[in-house]
Amino acid sequence: MLLPLLLIAGFAVVEAIGGWWTGSLALLSDAGHMVSDAFALGLAWLGSWIARKPATRKHNFGLVRAEVIVALVNALLMLAVIVGIVYEAVQRIADPQPVQGAEVMLIAFIGMLVNILVAWILHSGHSSLNSRAALLHVLGDLLGSVVAIVAGAVIYFTGWMPIDPILSIFISVLILVSTLRLLGEVLHVLMEGVPLHLDAQAVEHAMTVSDKVRGVHHLHIWSLSSEKTALSAHVVLENMHDWHEVLNNLSHMLHERFNIEHVTLQPEIGTAHSDANCWLTSNNEHVHDHSHECDGHHDDHDHEHTHAHGHQAH
């Protein structure tokens, strides 16, 4: 995100000076967008860097939630920018200010080209909430540049000054809709809701297709980040000897079909309310069988420590 950050920050200064020189609120609001864009890109870079940190004893899942928190901050920042623009636009409608239309069109056109380039760079990257939040800022700025061009053209050819603040309010409303949608997704992740692209009932059905599985209960699915999903559940078996086969099949199916990377499953025999025999944990491509932790089952088999790599148990 370094190149987009440099492009946005550099042109924000140019556009702010141009907005002050021409008297255009559309340009000044667009410059405000670009300043917030630069800040958003800086936060996005920081969030991505922190999210790649490995897991520690204090943070067992790593710091992947950092990108979600950064997306939340960026969404709130965008709301603040929108409020500021709308407030200034209302003041301008009540008291129109002179605007130099031709200069506004030229500066806004250059800004539009810069934003198209930055949006293309960001769109070609990852689609996490973090990068989407940064892209939302840039797209809002791109629309702001288009609005500034239209406002400059109307003022240049007709001299009607209120078009500048009116279009600024219009573009702010459009950005508000996208920002609120993103904010809703971020809060859904932070509240550990079931990922929006998954159906918990469909996942449960897929886990009980095998005739060796009698049922699934205590099923929980949540997002560690916008790109990593976790699942935990109790699996009721016909026969405990089938567990390693069932575990491998379920882990493979959940990863391939639903893209769930971190899976924790507990096998049980009998009814859905039987006492737990042991905990089995699958983390992406490796599975650990902590059979030595089974309560009341301390034979030789219970002390076996099994590692499954990929989909083949060793």
Report what the structure shows.
Residues 289-314 are annotated as: Disordered. Residues 200-268 form the Cation efflux protein cytoplasmic domain. Keywords: Ion transport, Membrane, Transmembrane, Transmembrane helix, Transport, Zinc, Zinc transport. InterPro entries: Cation_efflux (IPR002524), Cation_efflux_CTD (IPR027470), Cation_efflux_CTD_sf (IPR036837), Cation_efflux_TM (IPR058533), Cation_efflux_TMD_sf (IPR027469), CDF/SLC30A (IPR050681). Its main location: membrane. The structure is a single chain. This protein is α+β, with helices and mostly antiparallel strands and 314 residues long. The protein folds into 2 domains: 2-190, Cation efflux protein transmembrane domain (Alpha-lytic protease prodomain-like); 200-313, 2-Layer Sandwich (Alpha-Beta Plaits). Helices cover 58% and strands 14% of the residues. The protein has 8 helices and 7 strands. The chain has a 7-stranded mixed β-sheet with strand order 1-2-3-4-5-6-7, covered by helices on one side. A hairpin with a 5-residue loop joins β1 (213-223) and β2. α3 runs antiparallel to α6 (163-190) and α4 runs antiparallel to α5. The longest helix is centred in the middle third of the chain and has 30 residues, at 129-158. The chain is elongated.
Structurally, the number of domains stands at 2
> Strand arrangement, largest sheet?
1-2-3-4-5-6-7
Question: What is the CATH architecture descriptor of the largest domain?
Answer: Up-down Bundle
Task: Give the termini separation.
Answer: 42 Å
